[in-house]
Amino acid sequence: MTDTTRVILGINSAYHESSAALVVDGRLVAAAEEERFTGRKHGKAVRVDNADQLPVEAMSWCLRHAGISWSQVDAIGYSLDPRLRRVQACIGSEPPHVEFGRPAGEAVFQRGILRVRWLLRSVTQARLHFVPHHLCHSWYALGSSPFERAAILVIDGIGEGASISLGRGSRRRISFAAQTLFPHSLGLAWEKIACFLGLTEYDACKVMALAGLMPRQHLGNLEHVLGWGPHGLEVDEAVFDLEHPQDYSGLERHFGCHRAEIVNDPTLRLRIAAAMQHVTETCLLDIATDLQARCGEANLAYAGGVALNCRANAELASRGPFQRIHIGPAAHDAGTSLGAAWYLHTRLTGQPLPAQETDLIAASGPWTEATEALAPAGWHPVEGDDALETAASWLASGEALAWLDGRCEFGPRALGRRSLLASARYHDVVHRINTLKGRHEYEPLALSVPEERADELFDIPSAGRALAAYMLVTVRARFGWRERLSHLVHADGTVRLQVVNPLQPSRFHRLLHAMERHTGLPLLVNTSLNPRGLPIPAGVEQAWPIVEALGLRRAFVSGHCWSAPGASEAVRDRSPGLRMAGAGALVG
pTM for the complete prediction? Predict the structure, then answer.
């Protein structure tokens, strides 16, 4: 540290996905989500009265990791601006309700945000800056990209009041050309549709999975009530009524039946899910076309919760106007802590944001350390010359494997750092892993493939190649591989794919090649290491209870293989009669 070093801490805690990020001289040093330490998914609930519930564990870890004290922090960015909120918030006329958008609720929300300054003064003299939410998303999108300049797109539920922002930017400055304000919100429409279908507001991924089960010719009709027009996104409030999240009467009228009937009718659920996915893809293409016409840029940097929609991203990459698209792995609200810090770097120094270390964009959380002190009773390290070969032999024999290696991911996708892995050769693998994690049978699983083999197996749109690095796009298997991978693709013929770069420091890339030697397939089924309702763990201290809760018997931790008590060290074949898809015919 020198006298000219700038240390900036970014914080996100206004709504959900609480997180912290530390930037030194514009370069990412550490970023982590609060849920990874506390075990509470999304960090906290979305309420008007907890904007001051700071990500204390994530903040403390970032500083400890960098060896920086609170006295060395120069500035702090909070990813929501209360003054802009007062201007843009849609204030309803129901004063008794202490909710977002109501006078009483907004007063509580404002007090909570402003209390953050008082809380931080107890530990630091660093100045607190409130940064507009969509500006934070934008700086995360551009800062995590390889672009020097790009078109900027943010689509989420709501920031202060904006739900969609269109702009352009360089590594010095970002500006917006147009915004759509609440109650016209694609992100909140997704939340309401998910709840309308009997799911939760966090279940957009399940709605996408349901949509993939319905042939496109049977789509329901939402195009007339949600679309992109001359004045931005237009949402028919008579149908969606986003100001009243629990009122489904408009949607019931539109679809011609009560919510209770829809929740219990699988065909109706599929039709509505497919309709929502279809109108989202249409909107996204229209928005991208409008944006590209406004700014003339060839590259797109895109963020916000809607940017996690892999199927819509595939349509954007295949049919959209941009030559290259970048979406960072923490495109949801967690990434705004890093965006706030990057914005403050450019504002306070007058310097452009430097290029970032690619691997840190994917995984900037705590390291994993293999230590017997934290292992559950009876678990023991397995002796052997090559831990990767041991892990591959376990997987090839049909065992599921807890994989903890390197730093924890920053973002919702497991990218080979905190993963639950299984061999792609077994026809029942999706059923087994979904059962293990408590997921629905219809939910697809992602595949990981080495970068040098990806184009041989999958048709990846050129504009979306970077998206596959972070598991943010769906693709189709190439002709010669479709039959061999038929048990792994979703009903719509697609698979969410992670393309693994050979230069990343994780051992994951080498494991994929070991799997090809053992099974003939350079692939692994890769999902996050967590059961339903719990987040991805930060490190081994949080991971071991999850490993035991999932009933796993094998683990790979920082280059070492571990076995549960009573697990045979010999590799066993799966039971007779199980069908496998290997390098050729099915084995039965």
Answer: 0.94
